[in-house]
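tool_call: predict_structure(chain=1)
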Amino acid sequence: MNTEHILAMKSAGTGNIHLFDGTDDFMASFHKGKWIADTIFDYADLQENFDHMTDDDEILRLLAEARAALGQPLKQAKAG
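tool_result:
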C-alpha cells in the first residue's frame, strides 16, 4: 500500500498520534493508550508538538492497528 494519501504525525514527548487516510477520509487519534475515531488535537498542538512520520512501514502498521481497534477497515472505492 502507498502512503502518499496518508498524513501521520506523532508527538515524541507523549506518544500521541494523529492519522488521516485520504483514501477514504479515515481519521484517528491515539491518546492515553487508546485509539479514538476522530482528531482530538487542535491545529496549534499539531504544529508545535507533533512531527511528521516518514517510515512507511511504521505508518502502515499504525494505520492497520487503528483501523482494527476502531472496527473501520479500508472502504473499497466505488466503481464508475
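agent: Helices lie at 43-49, 56-70. Proceeding to next step.
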